[in-house]
Structures are given as C-alpha cells and as structure tokens.
Amino acid sequence: MAPRMERFVSPGKGNGLRSTARIKRGELVYSAEPLASCVSNRLARDVCHRCFTRRETLLRCSQCKTARYCNATCQKQAWSSHKRECKCLQNLLPRIPTDSVRLAARLIFALLKTSKGSSEELYTLEEHESHLNSMSEQKEQGLSQLASMLEMYLQPEIPDLAQEMTSALPSSCQEPLSLIAKVTCNCFTISDAELQEIGVGLYPSLSLLNHDCRPNCVMVFEGTKLQLRAVRDINPEEELTISYIETLSLTEDRQSQLEDQYHFTCHCQRCDSQDKDGLMLSGEEATWRLLKEALPRLEGQKADSDWQALLQSCSHLLSTVGGDVPDENLYKLRMTDMALDASIHLGHWEEALRYGEQTLPGYRQYFPDPHPVHGVQLMRVGKLQHYLEHDEDALDTFKQAFHIMKLTHGDDHPLTTDLLMKMEECRAEMDQQSSSSH
Ligand SMILES: [Zn+2]
Ligand SMILES: [Zn+2]
Ligand SMILES: [Zn+2]
C-alpha cells in the first residue's frame, strides 16, 4: 500500500501528519507494530506479555516470575525481547518498576539491537519532544526519580547506562532523564477490544499526529498492532488528527487536561465554540451538582471494584436526584455508566439493561462521528438484550454497532467478526420463534 500520510509543518502546531490522497471514512490510513511495548503492571497476571490477549490461565516465566504467556509459542516468540529484561526483573524482585520505566528499558534494548539508520519511521525518537523545558519543577522531579529507577533496574544488564547510551544512541537520547521524558510524553495506551487499558507502547511515526477534540481519525488495537482509521472523508493534504484524551467532557476540563499532560492549549473548533457544553450541563445546576459532587467517591468504589456499594450509591442517587436531571447531562450519564458497569459485574442483567439503554441517546448526541467508544457501548447493550431474549431489539442494536465498527475497526477486526456472528444468532433465533409459533 502506498503511504497515505506524510509529515508536514502544521501552522501553529509544529510537526504534524497530513494525507497524501483522498481518504474515505472507514479506510485504514496506517497500521504499525510498536517499536517497544509492555503490559501494564496492573494486568501483568491477566494478559499475555507477548500477544496481549487476556486469559484465565497463563504460563509464568520460571525465572522472573513476572512475565506471563498464553503458551510455549508466545513465550518462545517473546524471548528475544524479554531475555535481557528478565535478568533485570529478577534482580529487583519482589519490586516491579512502573510501566514507563519498563517501557523505557525495553526501548533501550530495542535501540541497542537495531543497527542505526534502518528505521523506516517518518519520525525518529531523536526528534521526539521531551517538554523538559516547559515542565513544572515537581513534574521534573518525578521524572528524575523514574530516571534513577531506570538506571537501577538496568544495572544487571547495563552497568553503566549513561556511558552505554552515549556511545550507542543518537545525541538527544543519551540522558536517561530526557529518554524517560520522551517515553512518558509520547507513549500510547494500548487497549483491548472492550477498550480497557492493557499496556503501553511507542509508535514513533504516530507521535506526529496532532490532537483535535473532534478528530478525523481514531486508533484501534489488535493485540499490539495499532490501526489508524479515518472517521470522516479526508481531502488530500488535510491534517490527520486523533484525540489524545476522552472527548466526552467539558471544554474547560479537556483544555486543562491537555495543558497538564501534553503542554499545549487546544484551539480546535469544538473548544472555540464550546461545542455541546450547554447540553452536557442541561438541567438545574442545583440538582445535577449533587450528582457531580458524588462522582469522585463513586470512582473510588469503582477503582476498588466494590460493585455492591457502587451500585447501591448509583441507584440511590439516580432514583432520587437523577429523576429531575435530563439523561444527556454529563454527570448523570457518567453515573448511569457506572451503574451499568456495577450491575454487569454483579450479574443483575435486567438492571444493567435498563441503565445501558438509558445511556444510548447521550452517546448518540456526543459521538456525531463513528467512535469506538460508541460502538462498544452499543455492543454491550446488544449483548444484554440478546441474553434477556429481546432478540428484535438486540438485532437492531447490533446493527447500529456494526455501522460504527465497520468504520472504526474495519471488517476484519475480531470484534467486528464477533458482532456479525451475534447478528446471525439473533436472526436464527427469531426465525426459530416465528416458525414454532405457527
Ligand atoms: Zn499470547
Ligand atoms: Zn522472565
Ligand atoms: Zn479542543
């Protein structure tokens, strides 16, 4: 496939990527394996460290007792990138370094292995922003600690990290501190089909993509392979954009998150027009404020997987205060979503379906373009409808999900295939019912 994108200087934003030809909505723009990647510590026991598949039982590396694999094949394939890491992990046990330190170490091993100049990337690590100059002192201190951790972690394999980096790496990557800064600013979160975060990875060319709160491209993963797809028709030489953050939030909150994490002020059309802010805050403020103020506590319960308490709080608030707040209100939508999560975890299917259906009008409003988050939400609701034998509703919901996912995930993605199968099941069951009722 001819390259469909090229780097250019985007006015006011520095480097960027633009299309080289007309791109239709739903088309694959770019696909890449990471230069380095690693499973999040949080899921280190649940996900294969090679293919990033979630499994009930995984084989454990007998040496570091940290890495886990689907089977001997995955383990064997992982060995060349795990070998040196394995020694470092063993040395530090029972401690395990943070995700960004493990990713930086994997990056260093990968860079030391590849010969210089062999990269086909549009953008090299050397050019990556570290933002060290614009960083607060506190943030820089945090990074310094990570850099010392990195040196300590790599000790068994690379006793003199600074020396080794100076002789083998390009000039702007020789300082452990600037390397770790680059890694934290440029790494991508790798998520699974249900959009749960499972790891982090570096995809150098795609670090050129600039942000827009209503982007024309989205990223979806298949294992660690990143796929960039257009969600709107794109003209030749038009800038390609993604959203760095969750777009379902208020302009003010998106802006402060972008400034804090990515060090820039967003001037996109959505931000300039404060698009949808009014709708997100619909209803009486005195009423929805009660929902807003309860959210941090509920998020804590969710983080602790305290589903019983979470469902109790959500359903209490939603049935008392929530009745007077429109479903589109952002805080009510977030709370309804948490109630959905909690009911699914507790196996309260009828209740889950009620909450799930209640979120859909909001999702439709807030995702005018095809978006993986919207597709996955429809699929969750469709599965509940299907399980509860509301076959006609389920088929309709799955169809809506398919219209989105054939564009965001493509026809060949396992999740799209899974969805088509679910639609077939619904049709077969509906046929069976109509024939048995005659
Ligand atoms: Zn595997
Ligand atoms: Zn190991
Ligand atoms: Zn914006």
**CATH top level assignment of the largest domain:** Mainly Alpha
Annotation, overall tally of beta strands? 12
Strand content: 5-15%
| Integer count of domains | 3
Chemical compounds bound to the protein: zinc ion
What is the fold named in CATH at topology level of the largest domain? Answer: Annexin V, domain 1
Overall, the morphology is globular
| Rg on CA atoms, Å | 23 Å
Order of helices and strands: EEEEEEHHHHHEEEEEEHHHHHHHHHH
GO molecular function, one term: histone H3K4 trimethyltransferase activity
Pfam families: SET, zf-MYND
Domain MYND-type: 48-86
InterPro entries: H3K4_H4K5_MeTrfase, SET_dom, SET_dom_sf, TPR-like_helical_dom_sf, Znf_MYND
Describe the fold and architecture.
The protein is mainly alpha-helical and 438 residues long. The protein folds into 3 domains: 1-34 and 203-262, Beta-clip-like (Beta Complex); 35-186, Annexin V, domain 1, CATH 1.10.220; 278-346, Serine Threonine Protein Phosphatase 5, Tetratricopeptide repeat (Alpha Horseshoe). 50% of the residues lie in helices and 12% in strands. It contains 15 helices and 12 strands. The strands form 5 sheets. It has a 3-stranded antiparallel beta sheet, with no helix packed on it. A 3-stranded antiparallel beta sheet has the order 4-8-7, covered by helices on one side. A two-stranded antiparallel ribbon has the order 1-2. A hairpin with a 7-residue loop joins strand 5 and strand 6 (68-69). The longest helix is centred in the C-terminal third of the chain and has 23 residues, at 414-436. The protein is globular, with a radius of gyration of 23 Å. 39% of the residues are buried. It binds zinc ion (3 copies).
